[in-house]
Design a protein that fits this description.
Blueprint (H helix, E strand, L loop, with lengths): L1 H16 L3 H25 L2 H5 L9 E3 L4 E3 L1 H10 L6 E4 L3 E6 L2 E12 L2 E14 L2 E11 L3
Parallel strand pairs: 1-7
Antiparallel strand pairs: 1-2, 3-5, 4-5, 5-6, 6-7
């Protein structure tokens, strides 16, 4: 009887103390989607500082494009601040979000941009990580569709 009482007590403590992973997953996906939408809104507003605030301020930030892979927030931020060029139009489709782990969400969305009369379409990817309550883009890429 004593052993079963101890076992029951341990199970109750373990169940009460275990994190609710489904709730963590749901909340992470919801918060990452809000960060995604806020990032796109900053582009629409042509708000460089608001846009940069969404990115991980770290040498580990990864920016991948069709012809390059760069690392580091500082050069990324310097280039963004030095340019006043923004897409004339950005149409961002619904993101596909995948929860990878607590505080880590992958997202991809279809886009169409118009820049100086030329349009291009493709996919953009993000890896969001939760840092002290704020979600930041740690990896970003742009994959243009070949026509």
């Amino acid at each position: 009887m004593r052993a079963s009482s101890v076992l029951l007590g341990v199970l109750v403590i373990a169940a009460c103390g275990a994190p609710d992973m489904e709730e963590i997953r749901r909340r992470d996906l919801e918060e990452a989607e809000q960060a995604f939408r806020s990032n796109i809104a900053a582009i629409h507003r042509r708000d460089a500082e608001g846009y940069l605030a969404h990115y991980l301020d770290s040498p580990e930030l990864v920016i991948a494009g069709g012809d390059s892979l760069r690392r580091g927030f500082l050069p990324f931020a310097e280039a963004r601040r030095a340019s006043n060029e923004w897409p004339d139009t950005l149409i961002a489709g619904e993101p596909v979000l995948v929860w990878l782990a607590p505080g880590v969400v992958y997202g991809a969305y279809p886009y169409t941009v118009v820049e100086r009369g030329d349009s291009s379409s493709g996919w953009s990817e993000r890896v969001f990580i939760k840092t002290g309550g704020a979600w930041k883009v740690a990896v970003t890429s742009r994959i243009d569709r070949c026509d």
